[in-house]
Amino acid sequence: MTPKNARMAALVLAVTLAGATRLVEAQRPRFVHTPPPAGALWLKGNTHTHTTNSDGDTPPEQVAQWYKRHKYDWLVLSDHNVFTDPRTLASLMDSTFLLIPGEEVTTAFKSAQVHVNALDITRVIAAPKDTSLLTTVQATIDAIRAERAIPHINHPNFRWSIDTTVLWRMKNDRLIEIHNGHPLVHNDGGGESAGLEEAWDALLTRGKKIYGISVDDAHHFQGEFASDRANPGRGWVVVRTPRREGRAIVEALDAGQFYASSGPVLDDITVTDATLSLRIRRDGDFKYTTQFIGDNGRILAVNRTLTPSYTLTGNETYVRARVIDSGGRVAWVQPVFTTRFVERAR
Q: Per DSSP, what are the bridge partners of residue 98?
């Protein structure tokens, strides 16, 4: 080969390799993300709790005082088929604590219980009835959306009422409880029924964009705090929002801009095109294990530092994280979807 031909061959090879590299880069998944607004706030709150206006044991004012005293930034009073107007509790609201109007829209189909919370309502939303479990749940979601409120499906495993098949077919819903502090809701599943995290991953893997809420579903503020009672403080969400205002908070929830927790506190969550990173706040001498989770609930990586990070490797459609402290409490980071994720029609 002449020197001229050798130079030409080298040039062709270089161009070919560059093109192949660009093709690989184009095909490599990237996280779909929007940087948080400047000055965004992390605000802790609970979307599901009860008072004597339905089946709780304590009046609304005292319930709200419990959460304010325990440093929550906001609260939804979600009594069954009751609208508790926050204006009646205006004396409790200030620059540190906000009440967001809500309702647990409560209905049923035969023995199956259908409970869907409505966040940021202006009046009571009538609980619908329909001809099947599927259409009853959907009618409830639709009634909530019609009021410009935000729905979240409560405790699907309560009385084993709503399975993954029904959850998959729901439309216009973005939020589902994956942890509920009530002792009768079977978060972990049992027998042939999936646990709520397992159901969540099944929905995500099939192509449903849905986010996981943690709540306490408190009913019992009086007397003993015990594992067989529905006491407050067992689950919450921390929302990243541009403003300390009810509508901004619930819209951030609906967009997945939050993490859920039963204990661990995160100081930050950062997403770039290729990396999901966390900063965990140390509590005393607790230690932490972070699991990064992808399709079908598969654990992609494990990290035991306070600054865990995961970098995309090439096949992921979503990545979420579970932070477990040495006391067994958990924080759930919402799924971050990649360019490989395809939202499926149902």
A: 74
pLDDT-based confidence at residue 19 (cuts at 50, 70, 90): very low
SS (H, E, C) the chain: CCHHHHHHHHHHHHHHHHHHHHHHHHHCCCECCCCCCCCCEEEEEECCECCCCCCCCCCHHHHHHHHHHCCCCEEEECCECCCCCHHHHHHHCECCEEEEEEEEEEEEECCEEEEEEEECCCCCCCCCCCCCHHHHHHHHHHHHHHCCCEEEECCCCHHHCCCHHHHHHCCCCCEEEEEECCCCCCCCCECCECCHHHHHHHHHHHCCCCEEEEECCECCCCCCCCCCCCCCCCCEEEEEECCCCHHHHHHHHHCCCEEEECCCEEEEEEECCCEEEEEEECCCCCCEEEEEECHHHCEEEEECCCCCEEECCCCCCEEEEEEEECCCCEEEEEEEEECCCCCCCC
Q: Of how many residues is the chain composed?
A: 346
Residue-wise pLDDT for 87-111, tens only, equals 999 999 999 999 999 999 999 999 9
The pLDDT tens digits of the residues spanning 236-273 come to 999 999 999 999 999 999 999 999 999 999 999 999 99
Do 178 and 242 have their domain in common? yes
**Residue 77 is part of a domain; what is its CATH number?**
3.20.20.140
Claim to verify: residue 243 and residue 305 sit in the same structural domain: no
Closest to 309 (Cα-Cα) out of 329, 286, 336, 284: 336
Maximum Cα–Cα distance for the chain, whole Å?
93
Q: What is the mean pLDDT of residues 197-223?
A: 98
* Domain at 281, CATH number: 2.60.40
Confidence category of residue 170, pLDDT binned at 50, 70, 90: very high
Domain of residue 169, residue span: 41-262
Q: How confident is the model over 61-72, as pLDDT tens digits? A: 999 999 999 999
pLDDT digits (tens, 9 = 90+) for 48-63: 999 999 999 999 999 9
Cross-strand partners of 46: 75
